[in-house]
Design brief:
Helix content is about 20%, strand content about 30%. Residues about 1-20, about 25-50 and about 55-65 have low confidence and may be disordered. The chain is α+β, with helices and mostly antiparallel strands and about 210 residues long. It has one domain (about 5-205). The strands form 2 sheets. Strands 1-5-6-7-8-12-11-10-9 form a 9-stranded antiparallel β-sheet, with helices on both faces.
């Protein structure tokens, strides 16, 4: 793992967050070092059984089959055998994978509510949207920020644009320093280091994020 670029990556992550959130930030740092180790598995492939932490089921919300299909089409992320899905409850995720190493809350200027950001070591961050309307909070984005973890399909930080294209095909959207892929109502945004094709961070998010 190339720890010397972590600060740059985290700064990039926070810049992206600034596009959808602003003001009133508070931070709480906790010591949960046991929740994160150097051999924290990439996609949980070594575990015997996987735990799915999914978006609300039809039984819980009365959602119809089309909504279930949308959830099934979304990109997801697996950590130590636990599948973490967009739209899921962070409380359920925390019960499965443990507490974050740090927490950060920021009011949003894009919607009426706030974002709770839960960081797990230097490897990934889970963003939870909390709406003032009283709807149940839900996971809206997941950032991968080092090569101890990877996407469900096997892409990780420090790989290259060519690696991304070999895994996902030609991008649905492309800019000078990023490419994007869409599946259902979800997006994988792949950010490159300035002036190179090396992946600096990966964001798995709902399209609304």
């Amino acid at each position: 793992m190339k720890k010397n670029v972590i600060k740059t990556i985290v700064a990039g992550s926070m810049l992206a967050l600034a596009l959808t959130a602003c003001g009133g930030a508070t931070e709480e740092t906790k010591d949960y070092s046991s929740a994160f180790t150097d051999d924290a598995g990439n996609t949980g492939a070594d575990t015997a059984t996987d735990t799915d932490v999914t978006a609300a089921t039809a039984d819980e919300t009365g959602a119809d089959a089309s909504e279930d299909q949308t959830s099934a089409d979304r990109f997801a992320f697996t950590y130590n055998g636990t599948k973490i899905e967009l739209g899921a409850s962070y409380d359920d995720v925390k019960a499965a994978i443990g507490d974050a190493t740090s927490e950060f809350t920021q009011n949003s200027c894009a919607f009426d509510g706030c974002l709770n950001m839960y960081t797990y070591g230097s490897s990934f961050e889970i963003d939870e949207t909390v709406l003032d309307s009283g709807e149940a909070p839900y996971i809206s984005a997941i950032y991968l920020t080092d090569d101890l973890v990877s996407t469900e399909e096997g892409l990780s930080v420090f790989m290259t644009k060519d690696d991304a294209v070999s895994i996902y095909g030609e991008p649905d959207e492309e800019g000078d320093s990023y490419i994007k892929y869409r599946s259902g109502d979800s997006v994988i945004s792949i950010i490159f280091d300035d002036g190179s094709d090396t992946i600096a961070s990966i964001c798995i998010s709902l399209d609304e994020y």
